[in-house]
Design goal:
Radius of gyration: 15 Å
Number of strands: 19
Helix content: 10-25%
Shape: globular
Number of helices: 1
Structural class: mainly beta
Low-confidence stretches: none
Order of helices and strands: EEEEEEEEEEEEEEEEEEEH
Strand content: 25-35%
């Protein structure tokens, strides 16, 4: 069972049909929507400020979400995929965005709808990534526009795949969940 810790009078709120890996850690002022998946060794630390997560969001293995005390919050829209070993610190991530493996997204940065942050990138504080933009590098820079339909298809597919993977854990005897 995941480690769920109340702190400063806040108890995490987990949406219906969400999967929490047994060693995921969710602390304090965290509110997540339905059909989310928080994977192995992920940490959502809402001890110093709030973390809000929409529906159908996956936070993959080893990722850390945290904020600045009284300064930054995390807002994540619907159908967002946060890759393995990502750090999000006080940023806003819009619907259908994809944050690639090992990326870092810093305080007050904003990732637009359908945008993609390439694996290993560092998005500096206060950076604004527009809708359907691909950014990469250290520090992250604009690379190109991504076709909105293509971005939505890719990002939606990943988000839906992770929903299916979570069902292997939460509904293991359901024949509809076979690979």
């Amino acid at each position: 069972m995941a480690l769920i810790i109340p702190v400063r009078g806040y108890t995490p709120e987990i949406g219906a049909d969400s999967f929490l890996a047994e060693n995921a850690t969710i602390v304090g002022d965290v509110v997540m929507g339905e059909n989310c998946s928080i994977w192995f060794n992920a940490v959502l630390r809402g001890d110093v400020n709030s973390i809000r997560i929409g529906n159908n969001v996956n936070v993959q293995d080893g990722s850390v979400l945290h904020t600045l005390y009284q300064k930054s919050t995390i807002e994540i829209g619907n159908h967002v995929s946060i890759g393995h070993n990502v750090t999000i610190h006080g940023a806003k991530i819009h619907d259908y965005a994809l944050i690639g493996m090992g990326a870092v997204v810093m305080d007050d940065a904003e990732v637009g709808e359908g945008a993609i942050v390439a694996a290993g990138s560092v998005v500096l504080s206060r950076t604004k990534i527009g809708a359907n933009e691909l950014w990469g590098g250290t520090p992250a820079k604009f690379i190109k526009m991504v076709d909105p339909a293509q971005a939505k298809e890719i990002n939606q597919k990943i988000a839906h795949n992770y929903l299916q993977y979570s069902r292997w854990y939460t509904h293991p005897d359901d024949p509809n969940n076979l690979p």
